[in-house]
Design the sequence.
């Protein structure tokens, strides 16, 4: 028997440029496929070293037949070990553990990123991959991606029985060896003596050993970095390896149960025995988390450290429901980690661990109280299903901002460079403290620092992480602002050059072209004669919208809403568009605005400034005297705004009887029509919701917060709002009819009934009021009845609470949801989108493009035709939108705190929530919400002395929402009920352990 | 009618062929002995994306390719025979042989024939029968109580079916099953199966010889189906196209090697011999062209032919095959160092590239 055919699979050392690789892929559906890929190997992939002349010649020309310049320097920097200079070749783990280090300016240069490594990084962590890609694009860093898997000399086949990791390690070594030899011949060809070393950076001992036998230079990160200047600071940025973490604690007891294997979890979730969801920690009680799973209406409760089993807020976890006898009512206590575990020792896990296990004594006691009450107590809070985490599908760890716990630092002398383990307390209360090893602990005290979690092993009570960098002193404006931008993942770096290159070259001198033959004028209506004006908050520079109204001869009105034509300047798919899509929205902080688009566009070229001509996208309606739309029309246009009013000035002008010019008259028409529109909307069941809005008035020069004011709402605010809503609704139905599959819309799902249950019950018990939640109309109507004649603010409070019961509105692509689900619950409209603020929201920009395509102004870009792409955009926008709101709120909160600095104020407040050991109050004047602990109930003590930290006894009646507090030392008892009006003393307090300033509330 | 059945041989040629095969020892047209196989060309692992594959080319020009693909499938409850729950409380499911036939699927494609024509359907049934008769394959396909592999065995005849293609297809299937590998399981117990992504780690469906060379135990092998004919008192293996045309009986014997290394018969079928369709010869006395006896009645002519009993001219064989002959065929096929082992040994030597 003979074989006629050449064997297909190639041998281990390919000599031809054709090879193949075979692997097995398991699909989500459970199908298993054998995949064979052909690999075409090349010999013209350059080494990109400036030393090498041959590679520059063989490299195939790229775009516009330009050759890429060589990246790696001819004279790379040397160290003690490699005086002749060196190129670094890190392996995957080096990037995974020390990405922060690589990102440091001027530390690592001339780095060869192998394709093998890059792909492995991508598989292991997408965020790190993006950071690595950003590094390779950074010119100064000189990071070169070498496609070793496609170069004939460096390609290797997986050997029989070789794990994929071993194979990749071998590929790295092979590439190192090739580089070494290649550079040697290159330097010989140049006739130079100095040949840079090629150093493989890895922490894998086995790999290092093999490198040694192969004659390849190798180093582990620890020893390599130790040879660099400023090694202490740099070493802190390296994630602690597992070996280090476990070191010296072999006998350590395992605190946490082991996770199930991935396949066991997937099987369990599929069969319904286990459940998958996102782990959320309660903001009031760090030991209690919830996981909402599709199988149940209510979220499952996860109590205690052992049950939450190393899950950090935001992780995607798999949980198992506990037996019924372990079900509990949600905790009615406020627990903050800082208060309970002050005395933890970061350094000595073993001793402390054996004494206390996962749950410290205090924690256990706090939980016990809960259980007791849950057993005694009655119908009002029935035990709810609890669960425990059995595995983590995906970690959602990010970088956390926090500060070093002063108590955990042993030697605080700045000179001592001893490595010690300290606790870092994250700003986000839901995240556990992070154990960090550092040599610069003393220096970082009292600073805002950025850390990353590296891992959380079974034998460690807290997660282990490493420092990334310091943001600056606590409470300095710069550090705090950066901290909250980082916390909410707001992209605040300046726009890169590629983005700025997309701006019109004329810069600020850009003008609407004078000649009507200019291509900019094609299909654009000339509306410069209309009496258009804009109404915005005072000091607004990015003016998105302007309005006009005039009476038509037939008695109807013509209304125009003119929106800045941003899509004229930002073309779909270019760098600026991509950046805007990533940022999603402009973020407004108290003293800072982080723009979605570069300043030039946002505040000048697009902004509908008064007295100048601007491109606009106009929606023009003809409405009858009852504000019914007779006809609507969409067009690109050129307008000239006659005036930019602030809300107040517009109001004054409308009210001033002496003003009789056409512009004022138009505004009066607008006002009249807007009231009718509003009445109609309210009749349809639109909700008038409230959120605690305050404005911080900053003194312009120092921008130290001076005063806090709640926002005032004028009729003119509502005027603008009504017409913007109308425009959004009109545009939404227009683009939906034009693009039924890909229209970018916004919806607000009706909240599930049980969301309102608690609030309705509270209102019933405490105030004997009724909150119906059958429809938005019912909610709106019943909210109107929730009025306490003595307390005008009470209604607002109820509205704030009702708002929290609702789901949040979201962007979506019309093809993903059935039409009946398009409803916007809060606005009570059938369809809605965002169209009116393209300068500050990306959705609006997309809506502009879709609208332009639907009126045949321009063809629709392919990005806007693919449902998958629109969906991805929506997903990002939803996250960005929420983060921007959160960042804005956090900023206000910070400034309110600053405004209160050094002051003691007594203010009225309302009780929002009662716990067994405190109450949460809302202070309308400052819009702050805060916890008052039992020990801060001053009036129950004979001497109002807040330093007395004994906890008074109290009983909580969960059925009636009443907290009864017994007097201390013969002081009088006190009863606090939900929604009560109380007086609190607000002052700021510096926390001893952290040096952090907090707003402290005390009950008078 | 299948192309192999309709041979342009005259009754005289047929008669000559038959009588030489019926001699003791038989004289075969290509000079082989009665149990000798024709040489063949074989290779395995020729399709990179299949789990196993093989190609065999017979010397007469017929050639076949077989690809085996495996897919994970959920096992329905009734596929498993729960074993005595009460005894140990642990339920160990075993595949129920009666329904496990659906765990693999053989489809045969023959150029010029539709897939629902009798020949491919019958051939597929015979190959399936042999694989099922072994009973071991379904055990090998079990992953855990809830999942099993489902094999798709695609058989493609590349050439025209010049002779009866059963042995060719069976040998190719055998070879491809020998080279079939299944991804290595990394999950445990009855979890949803997860597999190692390394193709090199995958395991052979039928263990390879070198893996347990140390132990005395032989590995079992997938069945092969051999074609045997009888001519007179002789039994002849691997008949060529011409020989088939004069066979008295054609039998397909499926044999396999069990764990002890012995050959055993797993299935047996007689096949409609193509010789029955040949035209019978006309006795000289009835030949109209010679004009001697022009006016013989139909009944007389019939009687004359019967009397002749094929002694003087060719008459298509009739009747079946007796039991003694059948058992002789089986014994020859499964004999120690007999033809069965020879063929399997030969195929085992094909280098999986």
Sequence:
């Amino acid at each position: 028997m003979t074989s006629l055919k050449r064997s297909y699979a190639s041998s281990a050392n390919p000599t031809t440029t054709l090879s193949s690789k075979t692997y097995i892929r398991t699909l989500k559906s459970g199908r298993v496929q054998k995949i064979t890929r052909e690999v075409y190997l090349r010999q013209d992939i350059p080494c990109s070293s400036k030393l090498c002349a041959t590679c520059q010649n063989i490299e195939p020309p790229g775009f516009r037949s330009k050759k890429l310049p060589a990246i790696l320097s001819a004279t790379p920097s040397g160290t003690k070990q490699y005086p002749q200079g060196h190129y670094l070749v890190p392996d995957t783990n080096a990037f995974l553990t020390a990405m922060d280090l690589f990102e440091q300016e001027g530390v690592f240069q001339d780095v060869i990123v192998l394709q093998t490594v890059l792909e492995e990084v991508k598989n292991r962590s997408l965020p790190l991959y993006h950071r690595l890609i950003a590094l390779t694009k950074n010119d100064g860093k000189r990071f070169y991606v070498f496609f070793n898997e496609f170069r004939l000399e460096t390609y290797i086949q997986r050997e029989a029985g070789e794990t994929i990791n071993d194979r990749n390690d071998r590929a790295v070594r092979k590439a190192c060896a090739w580089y070494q030899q290649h550079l040697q011949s290159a330097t010989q060809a140049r006739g130079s003596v100095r040949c840079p070393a090629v150093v493989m950076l890895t922490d894998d001992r086995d790999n290092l050993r093999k490198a040694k036998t192969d004659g390849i230079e190798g180093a582990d990160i620890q020893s390599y970095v130790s040879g660099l200047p400023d090694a202490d600071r740099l070493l802190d940025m390296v994630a602690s390896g597992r070996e280090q973490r476990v070191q010296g604690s072999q006998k350590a007891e395992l605190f946490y149960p082991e996770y199930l294997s991935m396949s066991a979890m997937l099987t369990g979730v599929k069969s319904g025995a286990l459940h998958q969801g996102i782990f959320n920690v309660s903001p009031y009680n760090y030991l209690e988390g919830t996981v909402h799973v599709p199988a149940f209406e209510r979220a499952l409760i996860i109590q205690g450290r052992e049950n939450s089993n190393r899950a950090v807020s935001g992780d995607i976890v798999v949980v198992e429901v506990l037996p019924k006898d372990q079900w509990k009512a949600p905790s009615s206590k406020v627990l903050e980690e800082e208060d309970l575990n002050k005395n933890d020792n970061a350094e000595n896990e073993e001793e402390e661990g054996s004494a206390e296990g996962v749950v410290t004594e205090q924690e256990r006691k706090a939980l016990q109280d809960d259980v007791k009450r849950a057993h005694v107590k009655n119908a009002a809070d029935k035990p709810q299903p609890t669960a425990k985490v059995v595995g983590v599908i995906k970690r959602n760890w990010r970088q956390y901002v926090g500060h070093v716990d002063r108590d955990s630092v042993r030697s605080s002398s700045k000179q001592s460079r001893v490595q010690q383990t300290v606790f870092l307390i994250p700003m986000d209360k839901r995240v556990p403290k992070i154990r960090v090893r550092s040599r610069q602990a003393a220096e970082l005290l009292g600073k805002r620092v950025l850390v990353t979690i590296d891992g959380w092993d079974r034998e460690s009570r807290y997660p282990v992480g490493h420092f990334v960098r310091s943001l600056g002193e606590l409470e300095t404006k710069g550090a705090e602002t950066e901290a909250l931008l980082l916390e909410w993942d707001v992209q605040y770096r300046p726009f890169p050059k590629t983005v700025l290159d997309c701006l019109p070259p004329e810069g600020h001198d850009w003008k609407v072209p004078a000649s009507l033959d200019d291509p900019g004028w094609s299909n654009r209506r000339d509306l410069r004669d209309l009496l258009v004006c804009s109404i915005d908050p005072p000091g607004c520079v990015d003016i998105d919208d302007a309005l006009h109204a005039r009476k038509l001869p037939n008695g109807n009105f013509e209304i125009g809403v003119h929106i800045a034509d941003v899509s004229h300047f930002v073309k779909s798919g270019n760098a600026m568009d991509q950046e805007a899509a990533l940022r999603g929205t402009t973020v407004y902080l108290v003293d800072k605005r982080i723009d979605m688009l570069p300043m030039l566009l946002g505040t000048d070229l697009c902004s509908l400034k008064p007295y100048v001509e601007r491109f606009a996208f106009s929606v023009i309606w003809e409405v009858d005297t009852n504000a019914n739309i007779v006809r609507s029309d969409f067009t690109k246009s050129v307008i000239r705004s006659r005036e930019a009013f602030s809300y107040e000035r517009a109001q004054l002008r409308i009210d001033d009887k002496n003003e009789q010019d056409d512009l004022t008259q138009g505004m009066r028409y607008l006002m009249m029509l807007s009231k009718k529109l509003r009445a109609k909307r309210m009749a349809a069941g639109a909700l008038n919701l409230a959120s605690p809005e305050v404005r911080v008035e900053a003194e312009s020069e120092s921008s130290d917060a001076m005063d806090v004011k709640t926002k005032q709402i004028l009729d003119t605010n509502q005027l603008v709002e009504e017409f913007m809503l109308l425009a959004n609704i009109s545009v939404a139905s227009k683009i939906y009819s034009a693009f039924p599959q890909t229209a970018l819309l916004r919806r607000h799902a009706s909240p599930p009934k049980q969301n309102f249950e608690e609030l309705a019950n509270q209102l019933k018990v405490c105030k004997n009021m009724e909150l119906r939640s059958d429809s938005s109309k019912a909610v709106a109507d019943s909210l109107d009845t929730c009025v306490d004649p003595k307390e005008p603010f009470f209604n607002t409070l109820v509205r704030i609470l009702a708002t929290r019961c609702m789901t949040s509105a979201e962007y979506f692509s019309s093809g993903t949801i059935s039409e009946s689900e398009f409803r916007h619950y809060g606005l009570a409209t059938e369809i809605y989108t965002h169209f009116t603020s393209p300068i500050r929201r990306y959705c609006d920009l997309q809506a502009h493009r879709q609208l332009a395509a639907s009126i045949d102004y321009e063809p629709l870009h392919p990005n806007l035709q693919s449902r998958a792409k629109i969906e991805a955009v929506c997903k990002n926008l939803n996250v960005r939108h929420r983060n921007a709101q959160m960042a804005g709120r956090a900023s206000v909160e910070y400034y309110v705190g600053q405004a209160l600095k050094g002051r003691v104020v007594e203010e009225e407040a309302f009780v929002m929530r009662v716990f067994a050991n405190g109450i949460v109050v809302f202070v309308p004047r400052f819009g702050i919400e805060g916890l008052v602990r039992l020990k801060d109930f001053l009036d129950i003590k004979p001497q109002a002395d807040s330093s007395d930290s004994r906890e008074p006894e109290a009983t909580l009646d969960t059925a009636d929402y009443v907290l009864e507090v017994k007097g201390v030392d013969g002081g009088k008892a006190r009863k606090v009920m939900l929604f009560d009006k109380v007086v609190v003393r607000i002052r700021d307090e510096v926390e001893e352990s952290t040096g952090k300033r907090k707003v402290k509330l005390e009950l008078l | 009618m299948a192309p192999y059945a309709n041979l342009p041989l005259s009754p005289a040629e047929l008669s000559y062929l038959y009588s030489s095969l019926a001699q003791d020892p038989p004289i075969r047209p290509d000079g082989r002995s009665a149990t000798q196989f024709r040489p063949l060309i074989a290779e395995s692992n020729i399709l990179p994306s299949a789990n196993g594959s093989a190609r065999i080319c017979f010397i007469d020009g017929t050639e076949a390719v077989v690809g085996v693909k495996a897919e994970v499938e959920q096992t329905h409850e009734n596929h498993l025979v729960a074993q005595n729950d009460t005894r140990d409380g642990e339920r160990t499911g075993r595949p129920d042989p009666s329904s496990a036939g659906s765990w693999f699927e053989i489809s045969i494609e023959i150029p010029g024939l539709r897939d629902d024509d009798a020949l491919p359907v019958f051939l597929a049934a015979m190959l399936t029968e042999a694989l099922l008769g072994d009973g071991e394959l379904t055990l090998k396909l079990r992953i855990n109580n809830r999942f099993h592999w489902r094999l798709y065995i695609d058989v493609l005849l590349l050439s025209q079916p010049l002779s009866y293609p059963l042995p060719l297809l069976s040998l190719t299937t055998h070879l491809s099953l020998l080279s079939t590998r299944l991804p290595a399981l990394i999950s445990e117990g009855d979890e949803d199966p997860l597999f190692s992504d390394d193709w090199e780690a995958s395991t052979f469906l039928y263990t390879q010889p070198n893996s347990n060379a140390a132990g005395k135990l032989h590995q079992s092998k997938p069945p092969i189906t051999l074609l045997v004919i009888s001519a007179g008192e002789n039994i002849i293996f691997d008949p060529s196209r011409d020989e088939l045309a004069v066979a008295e009986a054609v039998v397909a014997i499926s044999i396999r090697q069990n764990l002890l290394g012995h050959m055993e018969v797993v299935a047996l079928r007689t096949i409609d011999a193509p010789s029955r369709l040949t035209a019978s010869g006309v006795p000289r006395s009835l030949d109209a062209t010679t004009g001697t006896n022009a006016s013989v009645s139909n009944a007389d002519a019939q009687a004359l032919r019967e009397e002749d009993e094929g002694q003087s001219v060719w008459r298509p064989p009739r009747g079946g095959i007796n039991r003694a002959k059948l058992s002789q065929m089986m014994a020859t096929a499964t004999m120690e160092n007999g033809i069965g082992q020879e063929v399997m040994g030969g195929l085992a030597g094909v280098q999986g590239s």
